[in-house]
Each structure stands twice: as C-alpha cells, then as structure tokens.
Amino acid sequence: MSVVADTSTPGTAGGAGRPLLSLRGIAKHFGAVRALNGVDLDVPAGQVTALVGDNGAGKSTLIKTVSGIWAPSDGVISWEGRAVEVHTPREADALGIATVYQDLALCDNLDIVQNMFLGHERLGRRLLDEATMEKKAKQTLADLSVTTVQSVRQPVGSLSGGQRQSVAVARAVMRDAKLVIMDEPTAALGVSQTAQVLDLIHRLGERGIAVLVVSHNLTDVFEVADRIAVLYLGRLVSSGPAAEYDTQRTVELITTGTASAAPAAGSGNHTAESKG
Questions:
Q1: What CATH number should be reported for the domain holding residue 45?
Q2: This prediction's pTM
Q3: Residue 161: in which H helix or E strand, if any?
Q4: Which residues on adjacent β-strands are paired with residue 231?
Q5: Which domain covers residue 226, as residue numbers?
C-alpha cells in the first residue's frame, strides 16, 4: 500500500464533511472490455451506501478494485482524504476496508471463535490464548446485538445463513474495519434471516462504520440504505440520498441508464439527478 498525495480539503479538520472513501475516474479494462468507465463515487463514514445495477453493470469489478483484488486501469482511490494505491486485500484490510463476499470465506469445520481469529490468532506463552479470543468474540457479537448464536464454540457449519453473515461481519468489526463491503448479503436467506442481516447493517451504521452493500433486492436496499448509487454498463449513472429515489425510478436507471420521470407526487421521494 502506498500513499500518493494528501487531497484533503482545507478547513475540514479531522475529516469533517469529507467522505471516508472517494473514487474519481475509476476505470478497469480487461483487454478490449471496459468493465468500469470513469466511476466517481463517495462513501461517507457511518452511512449505508447501496450499490445497485443489473448483471454485468460492474458492481463486482468495483468492489474488487476497492478491496485490492484488482488494480484500477485508471483513476484515483482516496481514503480519509488521501490518495492511496491498494495492491492487495491485505493492504485494504490494513486501511480498514473489509469485504464480506457471498461465500463468506468461513470454515465450516471450525467454531465461531476460530473463524473470527483465523489468521489473527492470539498467543500467550507460545500457545493459543483461547480464553482471550473467546471473550473478545463474545463481546464483539454482543456489541452488534447478535443474540441468536447459542455458543461461540458452535461449528460454523451448524449456523443458519443469517448467523453466518453475522459471524463474517463481526470478524470484520473485530479487526477495526471502518468500511464493510457486503456482496449480496441477503441472497438465498429466508424472511427472518434477512431481517437479522438488515438489522446488523443498521447497527454498523449506528456504530459509525460505513457500509457499501451490493444487492439486487430493492426492498432490502430501501430498508437499509442512506445513499444509493446506480451502475449501468460500467458507468455510475446516478447517486444520491436514498430519499431521492423510489423503486420505479431506480429500476429505470438500472435497466436503461436514465430515468424518464420523477417519483410520483405524494410518494415521499424526490427526483435524483441522473448522470446518464
């Protein structure tokens, strides 16, 4: 990881009013294929930003670029006001960027404590400090109000989908993540498990942690999002506060890259400016 330059705005001491993550002109090319084309996006601290778009819009490419899996072909990534180059997931993790993918990267044969500390085990006198790790795992889950787990010594393979998401997110929080990226966190979950995950996302925002949620489920998006960003064929065609969107307009942006009309009067939403 390398810091390129300090791009903070004068007069914003301590980062007040400055986005946690800022992307400017981000492009990613795979040969002749332009997966991303000039994406500008701000992700504020303590808010939930929903990234939506159809299949092939560039959502996965964008989060993999932010999380250090792929380097951008062009553009600047700024973190807390400073331009940075993130070459690996480990470097993203060191900044405070944690990504929870759909597969969750959990080991079913290990228990919750072992999963949460995997690769970051704590030692005492050259032995695993099981007591400290167990205490920390319990405290982190409690802080996130995760109450459905009976024991932190349960094998992860015995957990429900919602509980597994909770463990993956708790692992990120325990490592002091400032931004948690969640890729389709409610996919294939039942109603009660989906509600559990959405509550967890709310709590992350309440703790001052930024969340970037990738989702096809607009019901879930409008349930949790403070901001919405729409990708269409590799371009960010619209972004803004969630209150400025409704389902019809968002679907139009996702499917065509433009929106023909503002939300209907009385819907409680306002027009979002489209860049497309």
A1: 3.40.50.300
A2: 0.85
A3: helix 161-174
A4: 236
A5: 2-96+178-256
User: Can you tell me which residue has the tokens 């705005």?
Assistant: 9
Cβ contacts of 56 within 8 Å, gap of 6 or more:
233
Alpha helices in 14-122 (DSSP H): 59-66, 89-95, 112-116
Q: Which two tokens stand for residue 158?
A: 């015995």
Sign of the torsion formed by the C-alpha atoms of 91, 104, 229 and 254: positive
For residue 202, the surrounding DSSP H or E stretch is helix 191-206
CA 40 vs. chain centroid, Å, equals 16
What total number of domains does the chain contain?
1
Residue 275 — pLDDT band, cuts 50, 70, 90? very low
Residues 63/183, Cβ–Cβ less than 8 Å: yes
Which tens digit of pLDDT belongs to each residue from 144-162? 989 889 899 999 999 999 9
Is residue 160 included in any domain, yes or no? no
> Do 44 and 58 meet the contact criterion of CB atoms below 8 Å apart?
no
In a domain, 109, yes or no: no
pLDDT in tens, 14-53: 344 789 999 999 999 999 999 999 999 999 999 999 999 9
The tokens describing 43, both together, are: 């992700």
Q: Amino acid identity of 253?
A: L
What region does 245 belong to: left with phi over 0, alpha with psi -120 to 50, or beta?
beta
Closest CA to 228 of 79, 95, 41, 28: 41
Strands (E), the chain: 2-6, 21-30, 33-43, 48-52, 74-79, 82-85, 97-100, 123-124, 127-128, 179-183, 210-214, 227-232, 235-241
What is the end-to-end Cα distance of the chain in Å, rounded?
33
Residue 129 lies in a domain: no
CA distance 201 to 181: 11
